Amino acid sequence: MDIVFLGPPCGASAEGARGTASRLLAQALRHRGHAVLLLEQALSGGAWLEGEPFFAPYLNVADLHARFRSRVRRADLVLVDADVPRVAEVGRWATDTARGLTVCWDRDTPRTLRQRHPEDASRMTPEQLAAYHLCLCSCGGPVPVRLEREWGVARARAFPPGVHPEHFAPRPQQGMRWDLGHLGPLSPERRALLGPLLLGAARDWPEGRFVLAGGMSVVDAAWASNVTRQAAPASRERPDFHAAQRFTLALSRAEHSPGPHLFEAAACGAALICDPWPGLEDLFSLGEEVVVARTAKDVLLYLREMPEADRLQLGARARERVLAEHTVAHRALALERYAHEAVRGASAGAPVRVPNPLERSLN
Hints:
single chain, 7-stranded parallel sheet, 15 helices, disordered C terminus
């Protein structure tokens, strides 16, 4: 397929630029044989991929229209990341211009649903998603069905994060520093899960060692002294961070969405303790690849009574599942399958009308 991908701008680090979700997916699609043009808004301090023929920066929507209108118009598939700056404006231009299949990749669909009527163009509304032929959701469960039934989205499909397995490989477990750790933004809503699980376990087991890494928006001086607080490690340092823990607490986000580091931790071979949420069983085998805890008592049962051999096996099986189903390469395959479904009209409803080249490429 001829694919145009509008992705969010990256940070200033060239190393980080190559590891962004949009660039990894673009590369995976290229490895599948597709022609991909990745467009990112040129922000001050952004890191560009010098010498990469599939990448081009743009200034604004007017610049997109002037320089890339014909390419978008003739593309078989136009993919818009919901995190692009002024996504409502960019998405409206893309869906009005494209003649082929239009796809929105929303990497935080619960946030979109919570902000139904944003005051500016930094977020799109669920209603605006209806302009696309296909919406890729960050989570499964009831969310895709809700988008289709309540907001008129033609097709919504689960599209959780994928990982690059070479970036997140297990490290030798030498000198364990913590019994349980959690990596992620410590938002008020996350506190509701941390309280009864990690923080409660720390209070009930003073001899245990715990760590919280991430944004400290809800630091509480009353937290137990055996809870270490630190900044989130850089991407390249996360395998070592997980290797220093006996268990990793992987918490969900709102609306049954996997947390941002679930698949990364599993790829590192971490022994995962998860809160229960609908859809988790579709990603991992409960009890075999991850274990579930509802209370601090559940957490402490795993920390203090699970045999070491079983703990290591738990992490190894989680990594095996990631390698089998949850890499960026698997997400590229899923996008192909969803595009085929949209063109053929495999789901209920009339088939999407797109140019013949896409149908030929999917035959």
